[in-house]
Amino acid sequence: MAYENLLYEKSDKIVKIILNRPQALNALSEELVKELRLALDEADQDPQVRAVILTGAGRAFSAGYDIKPREDGRQAADPYGLEIGEYIKYWWDRDHYDTEEFMHIWKLGVPVIASVRGYCLGGGFWYSMACDITIAAEDAVFGQPEVRHISNTSFMLAALTNWKQAHRWALTGDHMGAEEAYRLGIVNKVVPPDKLEEETLALAERIAKVPEASVRLNKAVTWMGLEAMGLGAAMRVNAALSSIAHSSHGSDREALWEAQSKGGLKAFLEARDGPFLPEPYGPKSVKR
Question: Which of 205, 247, 215, 235 is nearest to 15 (CA)?
Fold first, then answer.
């Protein structure tokens, strides 16, 4: 099928799905998320496909969920004009939907390899963690800066690292570099930026040499086992708590949205992230 927000490229047994909103650092719009689900299912249902590579066009994997304001300058999730119950339901539905999108990757028979360069933040970070394998370029930057405007982390971070490390990054929204992500077990390998595509493709091709049933069932061994241990339940609790976090609108967030209404996204980011500069890693860190 034709996609408007991503590229679907099939070569022999490998499919590459490229998030294709480079002008917005591949921010996850509602349309892109829906298309990504369809593209993953298309690859999974193709009997010729043995592995999927998920990556981003341009200089980022994904900067996270799109927070572009409405035409009136206010956020789409602004409680303005909504009853309290309506506002809570909006976030309940959205957070459960997003969580199911991450878990959907686990249920695919075909393995998904995240190939990450540049910014991999927020929802983009969560998609990379949900993938079966993650290869990162040396310039990759991971993080959840949205916690600074009252948002949630993902239990996947604690599952991949440990609860102390999860708190270190989830309670600050700080950026982490590729090497730190590798040390914590968030990525499998770090490679030079000019080798990222080559290394990712080589791994996908090695997987494609293994009998399909073996790959599909051994992926299921991992994910079904983790869900049996409680990961699936933890993610659904995560969704419920995320909806409460997102519904906890207050003066801090209102001040950020006011900055955005006057100066656009740049002003919003300066107001939100300025007090945290320099970041520990990445483009906004202290020059070493």
Answer: 205
Q: In what order do the strands lie in the sheet with 189-191?
A: 6-11, 14-19, 51-56, 112-116, 133-137, 189-191
The reply to whether 146 falls in a domain is yes
Tokens of 114: 């995240």
Amino acid code (one letter) for 176? M
- The confidence score (pLDDT) of residue 114 equals 98
For the chain, how many structural domains are there in total?
1
Q: What CATH number does the domain containing 166 carry?
A: 3.90.226.10
In a domain, 283, yes or no: no
Position 222 pLDDT exceeds 80: yes
Q: Where are the alpha helices (DSSP H) in the chain?
A: 30-45, 84-107, 123-130, 155-160, 163-170, 178-184, 196-208, 212-228, 231-247, 251-273
CB 150 within 8 A of CB 249: yes
Q: Residue 152 — φ and ψ, nearest 5°?
A: -115, 160
- Parent domain of 17: 6-276
Determine the straight-line distance between the first and last CA of the chain, rounded to whole angstroms.
Answer: 47
8 Å CB contact between 191 and 139: no
Q: What's the rounded Cα separation, in Å, for the pair 147 and 254? A: 14
Task: Tell which residue, 128, 145, 132, 149, has the closest CA to residue 60.
Answer: 128
Residues in a beta bridge with 279: 285
pLDDT at residue 1 is higher than 90: no
Q: For the segment 180-192, what is each residue's pLDDT rounded down to a tens digit?
A: 999 999 999 999 9
- Classify 255 as helix, strand or coil: helix
